[in-house]
Amino acid sequence: MNAIGPRVTELLDELMVHSLRGFPLTNYGIFLVIALILTLGFFLIASRRLTLIPKGIGNVAEMGMEFIRDNMVFDVIGAEGRPYLAFIASMFFFVLFNNLLGLIPGAKPGTGTMGTTVTWALIVFVTYNAIGMRKLGVFGYIKSFYPKGVFAPLAVYVMLLELISHFIRPLTMSIRLFANMFAGHVILGIFAIFTVLMWNGSAVGKVTAILPLAMQIAMYALEVFVAFIQAYVFAILTTVYINGAVHAGEH
Amino acid sequence: MTGSLSALGAGLGFAIGAIGPALGIGWIGSTTISSMARQPEMAGRLQTTMFIALALAEAIALLGFVLAFVLMGVK
Amino acid sequence: MSLILPQFPEVIVSLISFLVLFGVLAKFAFPAINKMLDDRAAKIKDSLEKAEQTRVEAERLLEDYKTQMAEARQEASRVIEQGRKVAETVKAEIVAQANVEREGLLARAREEIEGEKKAAMAELQASVADLSVGVAGRILGTTMTKADHAALIDKYLAEVGSINE
Asked: Is the ipTM beyond the 0.95 threshold?
């Protein structure tokens, strides 16, 4: 039991954000840049390999794009969502590539740190508010939070709640993505520690080590699923917020 | 000793805080399934709405998770 | 605490990363992919429409062929019917003509037979009369008067005639 404590501390230290010596990047930032290169490479190659009869890498990119276009943007916003498709698709694929990159043992997800997720959530926040303001004007957009035909003090209260919920959005968005990625890695690390400790502990442990190992494999499968789900959730929330801004003042 | 107490507080806090979102996520899933069974043609829209609701419920659990890590740092 | 508070270098890196990614992909990759998706959708729609057109055309042709076929069949049965009618008329005519001819032949034959019969009868009458006169004279040894002869012959003939009848 004594052996676990220091190892967990070591694991958490490893998962904390560190600056790399002699390098302007942190330990997460470097994987973020790798994911950036991979995403750019994937899409630039895929967009050169498009064929009318779908096949290969072009088909994969098209399927992803079609999913975002039809199941997210057109479903939620409708045909007016077309100008925002590139933004939402960039968000989705960048988050997805980061999440998946982090699942390679030894690598970290670029999205597993608050710095990244807060920045992106703020980009989304700024983007959707800018869309709303461009549509209604700055004053008109702020006025659209004020519910019409409601008893005045109540309307102010509702407006206040609305504004607070809007400002909380980037916070929940960033914490959700970060915590999912981070927690996944903590869980994988802890089961890895259990496995190693059991294996090294005793003769019986060599047999029982199969249990945390099996759990680790199951959690790894779950983490692959979570990588997709969180990218989807991040992108669908972006879509929903943009939808709210596009249709602001219409309800 | 204070360190292990804060670890205990963090663990308990997250465990208790996770109960509500867990129930909520289960409930969201079950109602979505029954709605889909009743109206299969709405499945796509229901799924989108379900994921948004799941994300909202999950955020509460994750806030607890982050809070637990913050508490663990308290000496 | 470094877990929760965003680190400034990361903010910069992730901001620049996303802007670069968005700029490059929105300009070079996504339009091509979207265009391909639209093209394919248009192509599929086109093909489906063409297929539908072809199907309609084929159905129309089939309908035409069916109509023509039915007309041809009707025409054929009409021709056969007509042929049969003509044949029957001809047959009836031939039969009628044959009947007429047969009647004529029969009548003529009957007439001829009748004539022959009468001639034979007359010849027989004459020869029988002569013979019987000769025979009677020889038997009687007497020459009968012409009146006696005549009476006798008539009587005989009447007898012969009654037999013949």
From this structure: no
Predicted pLDDT of residue C144? 64
Interface mutation vs chain C, best among A63, A82, A94, most C CBs within 10 Å:
A94
Which of the two residues, C7 and A231, has the higher pLDDT score?
A231
- Flag whether residue A176 sits within 8 Å of chain B, measured between CB atoms: yes
Give the span between the Cα atoms of C155 and C122, in whole angstroms. 16
Say whether residue A168 is in contact with chain B using an 8 A CB cutoff.
no
Contacts of B56 in chain A (CB under 8 A): 172
Q: Which residue of A has its CA nearest to B44?
A: A71
Residue B67 to residue B63: CA distance in whole angstroms: 6
Domain B2-72 part of CATH 3.50.30.60: no
Helix (H, G, I), strand (E, B) or coil at C3: coil
Contact A72 B51 (CB under 8 A): no
- C140 burial class (0-12, 13-18, 19+ CB within 10 angstroms)? exposed
Q: What percent of chain A has pLDDT over 90?
A: 20
Domain residue extents for chain C = 9-164
Mean pLDDT of chain C: 86
